[in-house]
Write a structure and sequence with these properties.
Blueprint lengths: L8 H10 L9 H21 L3 H17 L2 H7 L2 H15 L16 E2 L3 E3 L1 E3 L10 E9 L10 E6 L21 E5 L5 E7 L11 H8 L9 E8 L2 E9 L22 E4 L12 E5 L2 E2 L17 E2 L3
Parallel strand pairs: 1-13, 2-6, 3-7, 4-11, 4-12
Antiparallel strand pairs: 4-7, 5-6, 5-8, 8-9, 10-11
Helix pairs in contact: 1-2
Bound molecules: 3,4-dihydroxybenzoic acid and fe (iii) ion.
Length: about 300
């Protein structure tokens, strides 16, 4: 069908009615966004001549996405979450904010409520035969290099199967395995004693992987560790590091890799004295630079629904 109907009065009136634009009631922002997104969809249907079969396949895809609980996973996989980072980076440049550790996506697998320890936390609770010990440590500073005291550094990562605690389909992990929080002292230092993660893959039968398959894309991430870093004087940083040497570092399905976020992995000995499961261990030094509040406020704080648990 080549007939174009989008610009007709009938369709434009339908869009206005669907978003209730002519009424003063309702949430004005919800109405504005709904009207625009629906309009863009209708226009695309016309432009690409989408068939009813294609539309119904799409509608039912949303049902599967919800049933699988994967909407936030899909947001990462289709680059939507990366796009938000690109926009926040641009806003920072416009506001002349420079010098902080680069942000990168949060992903959907954070769990709030990890116990906060002073300076150091050992966060591997459950045994994991296939994972060797890893120490991640560094200093939290402001852009002028001064240590930030009382910063809370949170980290979370997958085990040797690529599964995150709380979301692990095998049930092999306690809620806060491989999740921790450390409060920095006057020296700004933090340290996590943990196990080496491997990369995450989307659930193979899930809605996200289904769409990726149709586009001949994989749903895998390189091995990585997530961070939230908060302090009452600085803006919250959401970031990740990748594990150096992972072949997927520049082929991450969630587009989270950044040049500055691939620190070196160093081989060390002396793990026994640190309480690690072997004397030989790997160490990553990751120093974190926070940027100051803007007029006393965190101008880019992201609020989104997050899971929480009690340790
Ligand atoms: C997804 C998984 C992750 O571990 C992550 O960090 C980001 C995204 C995902 O499945 O979308
Ligand atoms: Fe992740």
């Amino acid at each position: 069908m080549s007939a174009k109907v989008f610009a007709t009065k009938e369709v434009q009136d339908l869009l206005k009615a669907a978003a209730n634009l002519d009424s003063p009631e309702g949430n004005a922002r919800v109405k504005e966004i709904t009207h625009r997104l629906l309009g863009d969809l209708f226009k695309a249907i016309d432009d690409l001549d989408m068939t009813p079969d294609e539309i119904w396949a799409g509608v039912n895809y949303f049902n599967k996405l919800g049933k699988d609980g994967e909407a936030a996973l899909l947001a990462a996989g289709i680059g939507l979450e990366k796009y938000l980072d690109i926009r926040m980076d641009a806003a920072d440049r416009e506001a002349d904010i420079h010098g902080g550790t680069p942000r990168t996506i949060e992903g959907p697998l954070y769990v709030a409520g990890a116990p906060v320890r002073d300076g150091v936390s050992k966060i591997d609770i459950n045994p994991d035969e296939d994972a060797g010990p890893l120490v991640i440590r560094g200093t939290v500073t402001s852009p002028d290099g001064k240590p930030v005291a009382n910063a809370i550094v949170e980290c979370w990562h997958a085990n040797s199967k690529g599964f995150y605690s709380h979301f692990d389909p095998t049930g092999a992990q306690n809620d806060f395995n491989l999740r921790g929080a450390v409060r920095t002292g006057a020296d700004g230092k933090y340290e996590f004693r943990t196990l080496m993660p491997v990369g995450y893959g989307c659930p193979p039968q899930g809605a996200t992987q289904q769409l990726l398959d149709a586009m001949a894309r994989h749903g895998n991430r390189p091995a990585h560790v997530h961070f939230f870093v908060t302090s009452d004087k600085m803006r919250k940083l959401t970031t990740q590091i990748n594990i150096e040497g992972d072949p997927l570092i520049w082929d991450d399905f969630a587009y989270a890799t950044r040049e500055e976020l691939v620190p070196h992995v160093i081989e060390k000995t002396g793990g026994a004295a640190l309480g690690l499961k072997a004397d030989a261990y790997r160490e990553i030094e990751f120093d974190i630079v926070l940027t100051p509040l803007v007029e006393g406020k965190d101008n880019q704080l992201v609020n989104r629904p997050r899971v929480s648990a009690t340790a």
